[in-house]
Input
Amino acid sequence: MAGEGYRAFIYGCFTRGQAAEISFVLKSFIFCALNGYLQGHNLIECTKYDNSWTTDFRFLFGLLLFLLGMAFNIHSDHLLRKLRKPGDTSYKIPTGGLFEYASAANYFSEIVEWFGYSIATWTFPAFAFAAFTAVSLGSRAVCHHRFYMERFQDYPKSRKILIPFLF
Output
């Protein structure tokens, strides 16, 4: 679970702003560990792939989506981190990359990443996790977009909430 490892262990070390509560950090760690265990158990113990799976269209397309989502996710998080100088906790309008088209470019990228994973593995638990991620981050994206629109008079009116050009 490369994306989960990035979010659980690496991303937090580079964020700026207010410190996270330890209970939030522990809950996040437990969720990521449990989900990683369940996904890994399903792939190792419950799912059987034949030798041609790595050349199957579903695997290749899913892997491509996963890698694109991960790359855009890391890039979006990098752009968000650059918004604040050390010690700064003020809010700023994200710009660059997919943020030119959607308020929650980082969430969109993570959703793409996990749907890519679910297609590449072609398992119900992976799809369930991708769907949960989409619902969870989608609702957060609506709140973030609303916050930006209310807080910043100069917020780009053409910027979508989550999916560039669509929503």
Summary: The chain has a mean pLDDT of 89. The radius of gyration is 17 Å.
